[in-house]
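Worked example 3 (structure in, sequence out).
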Protein backbone atom coordinates (compact mmCIF):
# COMPACT_ATOMS: atom_id res chain seq x y z
CA UNK A 1 0.00 0.00 0.00
CA UNK A 2 1.22 3.56 -0.59
CA UNK A 3 2.67 5.38 2.40
CA UNK A 4 -0.16 7.95 2.62
CA UNK A 5 -2.78 5.22 2.81
CA UNK A 6 -0.83 3.44 5.55
CA UNK A 7 -0.58 6.73 7.46
CA UNK A 8 -4.33 7.33 7.00
CA UNK A 9 -5.29 3.92 8.40
CA UNK A 10 -2.72 4.01 11.21
CA UNK A 11 -3.69 7.52 12.33
CA UNK A 12 -7.39 6.65 12.29
CA UNK A 13 -6.77 3.59 14.46
CA UNK A 14 -4.55 5.64 16.79
CA UNK A 15 -7.18 8.37 17.23
CA UNK A 16 -9.82 5.74 17.92
CA UNK A 17 -7.58 4.00 20.47
CA UNK A 18 -6.77 7.27 22.27
CA UNK A 19 -10.44 8.18 22.41
CA UNK A 20 -11.30 4.72 23.79
CA UNK A 21 -8.68 5.10 26.55
CA UNK A 22 -10.00 8.54 27.51
CA UNK A 23 -13.56 7.24 27.57
CA UNK A 24 -12.70 4.15 29.57
CA UNK A 25 -10.24 5.54 32.14
CA UNK A 26 -11.04 9.23 32.39
CA UNK A 27 -12.65 10.68 35.54
CA UNK A 28 -16.32 10.06 36.13
CA UNK A 29 -18.98 12.74 36.07
CA UNK A 30 -18.21 14.08 32.62
CA UNK A 31 -21.52 15.93 32.57
CA UNK A 32 -24.62 15.85 30.45
CA UNK A 33 -24.78 16.33 26.71
CA UNK A 34 -24.82 19.95 25.55
CA UNK A 35 -27.22 20.71 22.69
CA UNK A 36 -25.85 24.15 21.82
CA UNK A 37 -27.85 27.20 20.78
CA UNK A 38 -30.97 28.01 18.79
CA UNK A 39 -30.50 29.21 15.23
CA UNK A 40 -32.12 30.50 12.06
CA UNK A 41 -33.79 27.16 11.24
CA UNK A 42 -35.65 27.02 14.54
CA UNK A 43 -35.89 24.14 16.99
CA UNK A 44 -34.23 20.86 16.04
CA UNK A 45 -37.08 18.78 14.55
CA UNK A 46 -35.17 16.01 12.74
CA UNK A 47 -35.36 12.52 14.23
CA UNK A 48 -31.63 12.61 14.97
CA UNK A 49 -29.35 15.27 16.41
CA UNK A 50 -25.66 14.45 16.26
CA UNK A 51 -23.10 15.02 18.99
CA UNK A 52 -21.80 18.32 17.62
CA UNK A 53 -23.16 21.29 19.56
CA UNK A 54 -25.59 23.29 17.45
CA UNK A 55 -25.12 26.82 16.08
CA UNK A 56 -21.83 27.55 17.85
CA UNK A 57 -20.22 29.11 14.78
CA UNK A 58 -23.08 30.63 12.89
CA UNK A 59 -26.77 31.40 13.24
CA UNK A 60 -27.36 29.63 9.90
CA UNK A 61 -25.34 26.41 10.30
CA UNK A 62 -26.45 23.97 12.99
CA UNK A 63 -23.47 21.62 12.76
CA UNK A 64 -20.50 23.22 10.98
CA UNK A 65 -18.09 20.28 11.29
CA UNK A 66 -20.68 17.83 9.99
CA UNK A 67 -21.80 20.27 7.31
CA UNK A 68 -18.40 21.02 5.80
CA UNK A 69 -17.12 17.46 6.15
CA UNK A 70 -20.07 16.39 3.99
CA UNK A 71 -18.16 17.80 1.03
CA UNK A 72 -15.69 14.93 1.48
CA UNK A 73 -18.51 12.78 0.10
CA UNK A 74 -18.66 15.07 -2.93
CA UNK A 75 -14.98 14.38 -3.54
CA UNK A 76 -15.50 10.66 -2.97
CA UNK A 77 -18.09 10.65 -5.76
CA UNK A 78 -16.66 13.38 -7.98
CA UNK A 79 -13.18 11.89 -8.41
CA UNK A 80 -14.38 8.47 -9.65
CA UNK A 81 -17.06 10.15 -11.77
CA UNK A 82 -14.33 12.02 -13.65
CA UNK A 83 -12.38 8.79 -14.07
CA UNK A 84 -15.48 6.88 -15.20
CA UNK A 85 -16.18 9.52 -17.84
CA UNK A 86 -12.58 9.44 -19.02
CA UNK A 87 -12.40 5.65 -19.32
CA UNK A 88 -15.89 5.01 -20.69
CA UNK A 89 -17.41 3.22 -17.70
CA UNK A 90 -20.95 1.88 -17.97
CA UNK A 91 -23.93 4.01 -16.98
CA UNK A 92 -24.56 2.47 -13.57
CA UNK A 93 -21.04 3.37 -12.44
CA UNK A 94 -21.64 7.00 -13.37
CA UNK A 95 -25.04 7.02 -11.65
CA UNK A 96 -23.45 5.55 -8.52
CA UNK A 97 -20.83 8.30 -8.42
CA UNK A 98 -23.36 11.08 -9.10
CA UNK A 99 -25.60 9.79 -6.29
CA UNK A 100 -22.70 9.95 -3.85
CA UNK A 101 -22.02 13.54 -4.95
CA UNK A 102 -25.71 14.33 -4.38
CA UNK A 103 -25.50 12.99 -0.84
CA UNK A 104 -22.64 15.41 -0.15
CA UNK A 105 -24.18 18.48 -1.78
CA UNK A 106 -28.00 18.24 -1.46
CA UNK A 107 -28.79 21.48 -3.28
CA UNK A 108 -32.38 22.62 -2.73
CA UNK A 109 -34.61 25.61 -3.44
CA UNK A 110 -35.63 27.54 -0.34
CA UNK A 111 -39.15 28.36 -1.55
CA UNK A 112 -40.00 30.51 1.46
CA UNK A 113 -37.29 33.03 0.64
CA UNK A 114 -37.00 32.32 -3.11
CA UNK A 115 -33.31 31.77 -3.23
CA UNK A 116 -30.90 28.96 -4.07
CA UNK A 117 -28.87 27.62 -1.19
CA UNK A 118 -26.71 24.66 -0.16
CA UNK A 119 -29.07 23.86 2.69
CA UNK A 120 -27.91 20.49 3.96
CA UNK A 121 -29.20 18.26 6.68
CA UNK A 122 -26.41 19.08 9.10
CA UNK A 123 -26.89 22.80 8.54
CA UNK A 124 -30.61 22.71 9.33
CA UNK A 125 -31.53 19.63 11.42
CA UNK A 126 -35.09 19.81 10.13
CA UNK A 127 -37.11 16.95 8.57
CA UNK A 128 -36.91 18.13 4.94
CA UNK A 129 -33.15 18.55 5.30
CA UNK A 130 -32.94 15.08 6.78
CA UNK A 131 -34.89 13.69 3.82
CA UNK A 132 -32.42 15.30 1.40
CA UNK A 133 -29.66 13.49 3.28
CA UNK A 134 -31.24 10.07 3.63
CA UNK A 135 -33.27 9.51 0.45
CA UNK A 136 -30.18 9.72 -1.84
CA UNK A 137 -28.48 7.21 0.48
CA UNK A 138 -31.33 4.75 -0.11
CA UNK A 139 -31.02 5.15 -3.89
CA UNK A 140 -27.25 4.81 -3.64
CA UNK A 141 -27.78 1.41 -2.03
CA UNK A 142 -30.03 0.29 -4.87
CA UNK A 143 -27.57 1.35 -7.58
CA UNK A 144 -24.77 -0.41 -5.70
CA UNK A 145 -26.91 -3.56 -5.45
CA UNK A 146 -27.42 -3.49 -9.22
CA UNK A 147 -23.68 -3.38 -9.77
CA UNK A 148 -23.01 -6.25 -7.37
CA UNK A 149 -25.52 -8.44 -9.24
CA UNK A 150 -24.55 -7.54 -12.81
CA UNK A 151 -20.82 -6.75 -12.69
CA UNK A 152 -19.60 -10.38 -12.45
CA UNK A 153 -21.29 -11.22 -15.80
CA UNK A 154 -20.00 -10.10 -19.17
CA UNK A 155 -23.51 -9.86 -20.63
CA UNK A 156 -26.49 -8.35 -18.83
CA UNK A 157 -27.98 -11.26 -16.92
CA UNK A 158 -31.18 -10.00 -15.33
CA UNK A 159 -32.46 -7.69 -18.06
CA UNK A 160 -34.60 -4.62 -17.47
CA UNK A 161 -36.52 -6.33 -14.67
CA UNK A 162 -33.70 -5.88 -12.14
CA UNK A 163 -33.35 -2.07 -12.35
CA UNK A 164 -37.13 -1.68 -12.42
CA UNK A 165 -37.52 -3.85 -9.30
CA UNK A 166 -34.73 -2.01 -7.47
CA UNK A 167 -36.17 1.38 -8.45
CA UNK A 168 -39.63 0.36 -7.17
CA UNK A 169 -38.14 -0.80 -3.89
CA UNK A 170 -36.13 2.42 -3.56
CA UNK A 171 -39.29 4.45 -4.22
CA UNK A 172 -41.24 2.53 -1.57
CA UNK A 173 -38.60 2.94 1.13
CA UNK A 174 -38.10 6.60 0.16
CA UNK A 175 -41.81 7.31 0.62
CA UNK A 176 -41.76 5.46 3.94
CA UNK A 177 -38.72 7.47 5.00
CA UNK A 178 -40.37 10.85 4.42
CA UNK A 179 -43.80 9.74 5.68
CA UNK A 180 -42.95 8.01 8.95
CA UNK A 181 -42.11 10.03 12.03
CA UNK A 182 -40.16 9.53 15.22
CA UNK A 183 -38.69 6.14 16.08
CA UNK A 184 -40.55 4.46 13.21
CA UNK A 185 -38.76 6.69 10.70
CA UNK A 186 -35.39 5.92 12.27
CA UNK A 187 -36.03 2.17 12.14
CA UNK A 188 -37.35 2.30 8.56
CA UNK A 189 -34.35 4.21 7.23
CA UNK A 190 -31.61 2.35 9.05
CA UNK A 191 -33.11 -1.06 8.29
CA UNK A 192 -33.46 -0.32 4.57
CA UNK A 193 -30.02 1.25 4.26
CA UNK A 194 -28.31 -1.45 6.33
CA UNK A 195 -29.77 -4.22 4.14
CA UNK A 196 -28.45 -2.59 0.96
CA UNK A 197 -25.05 -1.91 2.53
CA UNK A 198 -24.65 -5.47 3.83
CA UNK A 199 -25.59 -6.77 0.39
CA UNK A 200 -23.06 -4.46 -1.29
CA UNK A 201 -20.29 -5.32 1.16
CA UNK A 202 -21.05 -9.03 0.83
CA UNK A 203 -20.76 -8.76 -2.95
CA UNK A 204 -17.54 -6.81 -2.54
CA UNK A 205 -16.04 -9.54 -0.35
CA UNK A 206 -16.98 -12.12 -2.99
CA UNK A 207 -15.31 -9.97 -5.63
CA UNK A 208 -12.21 -9.65 -3.45
CA UNK A 209 -11.93 -13.42 -3.20
CA UNK A 210 -12.23 -13.89 -6.96
CA UNK A 211 -9.96 -11.05 -8.12
CA UNK A 212 -6.53 -12.11 -9.45
CA UNK A 213 -5.11 -8.59 -8.99
CA UNK A 214 -3.46 -8.02 -5.57
CA UNK A 215 -3.73 -4.23 -5.97
CA UNK A 216 -7.48 -4.47 -6.46
CA UNK A 217 -7.78 -6.82 -3.50
CA UNK A 218 -5.92 -4.26 -1.40
CA UNK A 219 -8.66 -1.72 -2.18
CA UNK A 220 -11.24 -4.04 -0.67
CA UNK A 221 -9.14 -4.47 2.47
CA UNK A 222 -8.67 -0.70 2.87
CA UNK A 223 -12.40 -0.14 2.40
CA UNK A 224 -13.48 -2.78 4.91
CA UNK A 225 -11.06 -1.50 7.57
CA UNK A 226 -12.29 2.07 7.08
CA UNK A 227 -15.94 0.97 7.11
CA UNK A 228 -15.38 -0.80 10.44
CA UNK A 229 -13.68 2.27 11.95
CA UNK A 230 -16.39 4.54 10.54
CA UNK A 231 -19.17 2.47 12.09
CA UNK A 232 -17.29 2.55 15.39
CA UNK A 233 -17.05 6.35 15.19
CA UNK A 234 -20.71 6.68 14.23
CA UNK A 235 -21.72 4.50 17.18
CA UNK A 236 -19.57 6.43 19.67
CA UNK A 237 -21.00 9.73 18.42
CA UNK A 238 -24.51 8.41 19.09
CA UNK A 239 -24.05 6.43 22.27
CA UNK A 240 -21.28 8.26 24.14
CA UNK A 241 -22.01 11.89 23.30
CA UNK A 242 -22.10 13.10 26.90
CA UNK A 243 -18.62 11.73 27.46
CA UNK A 244 -17.23 12.94 24.15
CA UNK A 245 -18.36 16.49 24.89
CA UNK A 246 -16.76 16.41 28.35
CA UNK A 247 -13.47 14.58 27.85
CA UNK A 248 -10.82 14.96 30.57
CA UNK A 249 -7.75 17.19 30.41
CA UNK A 250 -9.47 19.71 28.14
CA UNK A 251 -9.58 17.36 25.13
CA UNK A 252 -12.19 18.70 22.66
CA UNK A 253 -14.97 16.62 21.16
CA UNK A 254 -13.27 14.62 18.35
CA UNK A 255 -16.38 15.03 16.13
CA UNK A 256 -16.38 11.38 15.08
CA UNK A 257 -19.43 11.80 12.84
CA UNK A 258 -17.68 14.43 10.76
CA UNK A 259 -14.24 12.92 10.34
CA UNK A 260 -14.59 9.19 10.96
CA UNK A 261 -18.04 8.76 9.41
CA UNK A 262 -18.05 11.27 6.55
CA UNK A 263 -14.32 11.00 5.86
CA UNK A 264 -13.94 7.27 6.50
CA UNK A 265 -17.07 6.15 4.66
CA UNK A 266 -16.31 8.56 1.82
CA UNK A 267 -12.83 7.17 1.21
CA UNK A 268 -13.97 3.57 1.75
CA UNK A 269 -16.75 4.08 -0.82
CA UNK A 270 -14.22 5.57 -3.24
CA UNK A 271 -11.95 2.52 -2.86
CA UNK A 272 -14.84 0.09 -3.38
CA UNK A 273 -16.18 1.97 -6.41
CA UNK A 274 -12.76 1.89 -8.05
CA UNK A 275 -12.24 -1.78 -7.15
CA UNK A 276 -15.54 -2.72 -8.77
CA UNK A 277 -14.60 -0.66 -11.83
CA UNK A 278 -11.25 -2.44 -12.27
CA UNK A 279 -12.90 -5.84 -11.90
CA UNK A 280 -15.63 -4.89 -14.36
CA UNK A 281 -12.99 -3.90 -16.91
CA UNK A 282 -11.38 -7.30 -16.46
CA UNK A 283 -14.69 -9.16 -16.88
CA UNK A 284 -15.46 -7.24 -20.08
CA UNK A 285 -12.05 -8.15 -21.48
CA UNK A 286 -11.12 -4.54 -22.15
CA UNK A 287 -7.45 -3.54 -22.45
CA UNK A 288 -5.85 -4.12 -19.09
CA UNK A 289 -6.23 -1.04 -16.92
CA UNK A 290 -3.61 -0.97 -14.19
CA UNK A 291 -4.08 0.60 -10.77
CA UNK A 292 -1.64 3.40 -9.96
CA UNK A 293 -1.60 5.34 -6.68
CA UNK A 294 -1.01 9.10 -6.82
CA UNK A 295 -0.98 9.91 -3.11
CA UNK A 296 -4.51 9.06 -1.94
CA UNK A 297 -5.91 9.14 -5.48
CA UNK A 298 -6.37 5.91 -7.45
CA UNK A 299 -5.61 6.47 -11.13
CA UNK A 300 -6.63 3.90 -13.77
CA UNK A 301 -3.76 3.73 -16.29
CA UNK A 302 -4.20 2.08 -19.67
CA UNK A 303 -1.22 0.48 -21.45
CA UNK A 304 0.52 2.73 -23.92
CA UNK A 305 0.38 1.74 -27.57
CA UNK A 306 3.66 0.55 -29.03
Amino acid sequence: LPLLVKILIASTILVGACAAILLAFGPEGFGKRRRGNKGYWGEVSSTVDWCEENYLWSLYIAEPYNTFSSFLLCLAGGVPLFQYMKHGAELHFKVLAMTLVAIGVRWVIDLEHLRLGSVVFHATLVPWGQALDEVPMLWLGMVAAYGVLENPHKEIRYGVGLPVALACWALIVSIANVTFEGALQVVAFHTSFAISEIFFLGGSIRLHNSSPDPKVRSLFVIALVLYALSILGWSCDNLLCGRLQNLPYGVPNPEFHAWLWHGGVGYASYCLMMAHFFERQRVLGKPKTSLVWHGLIIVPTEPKEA
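Notes: The first strand starts at residue 108 and ends at 110. Confidence is low (pLDDT under 50) at residues 26-30, 107-120.
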